[in-house]
Write a structure and sequence with these properties.
Elements lengths: L1 H28 L15 E8 L4 H9 L14 E9 L5 E4 L11 E4 L4 H35 L2
Helix pairs in contact: 1-3
């Protein structure tokens, strides 16, 4: 049933935005980390999303003609978004003069992470709003399903 796939779409959106919020929190937590296991300062991470499922008109028509079910019995038209990759930001690191820092170079400069608190705050606010939008859509679909069941009474 195509209506039920909308629950999957909202759920995948909420899951993807949760990862985005986790990465923003990790970036903020490591904004002063000058030494990592990989060596060197922490580098800001970013989340890359991708859509999945074929959303073309042709596939929708084919799924509708099969009543939405493939040979495996699983709905063939499931669509949504998922995390494709978590990448490191390759922007230049901040150089801060602090000759007493243990990671300072011979000139007294320390390479600090390329994390900007303002950007991380904006990213986490955007992810929160997207998550809330998916929750609202999910609740609206749930209400529609409940009202549809009441019609039969």
């Amino acid at each position: 049933m195509a209506f039920l796939s909308s629950f999957d779409i909202s759920a995948s959106g909420m899951s993807a935005q949760r990862v985005r919020m986790d990465i923003a929190a990790e970036n903020v937590a490591n904004m002063d980390t000058t030494r990592t296991e990989a060596g060197g300062p922490y580098r800001r991470k970013d989340v890359v999303f991708e859509s999945f499922g074929d959303s073309s008109f042709r596939s929708a028509l084919q799924n509708a003609s099969r009543k939405g079910y493939g040979r495996t019995g699983v709905y063939a038209g499931v669509r949504g978004v998922r995390v494709a990759n978590i990448i490191e930001d390759d922007r230049e690191l901040k150089r801060v003069y602090n000759p007493e820092h243990p990671d300072a170079d011979e000139e007294g400069y320390v390479n600090m992470p390329n994390v900007d608190l303002l950007k991380e705050t904006a990213d986490s606010m955007s992810a929160t709003r997207s998550y809330e939008a998916n929750v609202t859509a999910l609740n609206a679909m749930k209400l529609m399903a409940q009202k549809a069941l009441e019609i039969g009474k």
